[in-house]
Amino acid sequence: MRMRPTLSWTPAEDLPPGTTDLEPVADALGTGGVLVLSGAGLSTESGIPDYRGEGGSLSRHTPMTYQDFVGGAQARRRYWARSHLGWRTFGRAVPNAGHRAVAAFERHGLLAGVITQNVDGLHQAAGSEDVVELHGALDRVVCLSCGARSPRRELARRLEEANPGFEPVAAGINPDGDADLTDDQVAGFRVVPCTVCGGILKPDVVFFGETVPPQRVEHCRELVRAASSLLVLGSSLTVMSGLRFVRQAAQAGKPVLIVNRDPTRGDRHALTRVALPLGTALTTVADRLGIAVDRQAPPSP
Question: Which of 84, 135, 219, 269 is catalytic?
Answer without folding.
Answer: 135
